[in-house]
Amino acid sequence: MGRLTIPPIVKMPVEAQATDALRDSIVNGTITAGARITEIQISQQLNLSRATIRTALHQLAKEGLLNLVPYTGWTVLSLSSRDVWELYTLRSAVERLAAQLVAGSINSSKSSRLKWAFDGLAKECKRGSPGRIAEADFALHKTIIQMADHTRLASQYALIEQQIRMYIRSSDALISEISTIIDQHQPIVDSILAGDVGASGHLSEQHNLTEGKKLSDHLKHIEAKREPAKTSPAPAAKKTATAIGKGRRKSSR
Predict the structure, then answer these.
(1) Which superfamily, per CATH, for 81-226?
(2) For the domain bounded by 14-78+230-252, which CATH number is listed?
(3) Where are the beta strands (DSSP E) in the chain?
(4) Where in the chain is the domain with CATH 1.10.10.10?
(5) What burial class does residue 179 get, using C-beta atoms within 10 Å of its C-beta: 0-12 exposed, 13-18 middle, 19+ buried?
(6) Helix and strand tally (H, E) in the chain?
(7) How confident is the model at residue 238 (pLDDT cuts 50, 70, 90)?
(8) What is the pTM assigned to this prediction?
(9) Is the model's pLDDT at 241 over the cut of 60?
(10) What is the DSSP letter of 174?
(11) Cα(28)–Cα(220) distance, rounded to whole angstroms?
């Protein structure tokens, strides 16, 4: 009997599973930005101990997805125009360096990885699912970071990558024509494959600065309209927790 093609079973601590479930729910918008969540409600919904949930929440706080409000609970990150400005200015510098490093060390293996990531983005754009497009978009950028073979650069990127996933989802949502996403990334990929260090860095930087400013300006406009009005109450924790449970059951199938 030949060897069967069976995917490996990945053993994960329950804290890691809880963290992944919560993270995915936040990044994909199942748990809305600005929502309040509590240890008690989440632990009851997921049938896990409060200690386990507390560990997961603290990890997500380190990733910048949650804020702990004294005597209130946890609040999900809601990107402001200032948050976006900080992210896109930082990304532009980091990803410029990564693109230059990859272009300067491009080989057949790296070319294949880059083409595979770009093809993945192109396929998701054809399918048209906003969530999957955003994840493929992030995956392309993360692939370039990984191929830079720069440990400290990668570790610094890891500190903000979950916020970047939220950022990309919001940025892509402003684009009316999906094909534009491919057009934005094609020149960057082509320059890296060609080994053009200067063009790779410049194009990567300009992509981040241009699209980042669009999102920042969009949020500034929304913030200006909201300023005179009273702040709306955050979504109820019960509704939020239910959404997490649904997302968790869906991801487990």
Answers:
(1) GntR ligand-binding domain-like (1.20.120.530)
(2) 1.10.10.10
(3) 36-37, 66-69, 73-76
(4) 14-78+230-252
(5) exposed
(6) 10, 3
(7) low
(8) 0.81
(9) no
(10) T
(11) 22
Where are the domain boundaries for CATH 1.20.120.530 in the chain?
81-226
**pLDDT tens readout for residues 43-93:** 999 899 999 999 999 999 999 999 998 877 899 999 999 999 999 999 999
Beta-carbon contacts of residue 151 (< 8 Å; ≥ 6 apart):
none
Q: Which residues pair with residue 76 across a beta bridge?
A: 66
Query: How far is the C-alpha of 178 from the C-alpha of 195, rounded, in Å?
Result: 27
Across 97-101, 161-165, 233-237, least confident range:
233-237
Please list, residue by residue across 156-167, b when 16 or more beta carbons sit within 10 angstroms of its beta carbon and e when fewer do: ebeebbbbbbbb
